[in-house]
From TrEMBL:
<dbReference type="InterPro" id="IPR029063">
    <property type="entry name" value="SAM-dependent_MTases_sf"/>
</dbReference>
<protein>
    <submittedName>
        <fullName>Trans-aconitate methyltransferase</fullName>
        <ecNumber>2.1.1.144</ecNumber>
    </submittedName>
</protein>
<dbReference type="Pfam" id="PF13489">
    <property type="entry name" value="Methyltransf_23"/>
</dbReference>
<keyword id="KW-0489">Methyltransferase</keyword>
<dbReference type="InterPro" id="IPR023149">
    <property type="entry name" value="Trans_acon_MeTrfase_C"/>
</dbReference>
<dbReference type="GO" id="GO:0032259">
    <property type="term" value="P:methylation"/>
</dbReference>
<keyword id="KW-0808">Transferase</keyword>
<dbReference type="GO" id="GO:0030798">
    <property type="term" value="F:trans-aconitate 2-methyltransferase activity"/>
</dbReference>
Length: 246
């Protein structure tokens, strides 16, 4: 289950990649713009501001996120990324930090690109930090008993692999950025991953086992990402972006 409040605890850090992604979309007057995996809807509203004449469609697989988006004034619905297909008038599809949760997403990306009308835009970004200390420690502390909650294969592709998926599009723009984020608080990296990467672990554990897991993980994250004298912590976060016009 997604927790919108936990996810929004770092709203500014999570928003920046979205804005940098959408800035590369060159659509001028799209008919329909779709936010795939809209989350709590805080970023979806900017799509309506960018393209006021467009129909903005928004959905997420989490009922909790959709409820939060609706409370924020976004006409969102519950839907499944893996089965959704763009309508014929869809000119822009945006997916922000969603596809890493979908094992079949490379084929989905190809399907979406093929379904968009000529001149349509597809833009997505995914985290590229699965080899970093944060994710390594999450797995180490979980141990073999929780191996089933993690995917065996790499959750995302390399930038060149995404470019190859979109090679038949008229324009392809793929890049990666490492944001060195300045986080605050006694356990800021733990708080960050609690809103995303730790969700499967939390769902698999009882309350007491979860408390024990966090008690072991927290000091290891503090060691890997030491707190500075001013109380802040540097947290490098790599993200992979792809924007294509069909």
């Amino acid at each position: 289950m997604w927790d919108p409040a936990q996810y929004l605890a770092f709203a500014d850090h999570r928003a920046r990649p979205f804005y940098e992604l959408v800035a590369r979309v060159g659509a001028e007057e799209p008919r329909r713009v779709v936010d795939v995996g809209c989350g709590p809807g805080n970023l979806t509203r900017s799509l309506s501001s960018r393209w006021p004449s467009a129909v903005v469609e928004a959905f997420d697989s989490s009922p909790e996120m959709v409820e939060a988006a609706r409370a924020a004034g976004v006409d969102a619905r519950v839907d499944d990324v893996s089965t959704w297909e763009p309508l014929p008038d869809t000119d822009v599809v945006v997916s922000n930090a969603v596809l890493q949760w979908v094992p079949s997403h490379p084929s989905i990306v190809e399907k979406w690109a093929a379904a968009l009308p000529s001149g349509g835009w597809l833009a997505f970004q995914v985290p590229g930090n699965y080899g970093d200390s944060s994710h390594r420690l999450i797995r180490e502390v979980a141990g073999s008993a929780l191996e089933h909650v993690f995917r065996a294969e790499k959750p995302v592709l390399d930038p060149v692999e995404y470019a190859e998926l979109l090679a038949d599009c008229s324009t392809v723009d793929v890049w990666e950025t490492t944001y060195v984020q300045r986080l605050a608080g006694p356990d800021p990296v733990l708080e960050w991953v609690s809103g995303t990467a730790l969700r499967p672990v939390r769902a698999a554990l009882s309350s007491s086992d979860w408390d024990a897991y966090v008690a072991e993980l927290a000091p290891r994250l503090r060691e890997a990402y030491p707190r500075r004298a001013d109380g802040t912590t540097w947290f490098p976060f790599r993200r992979i972006f792809a924007v294509a016009q069909v």
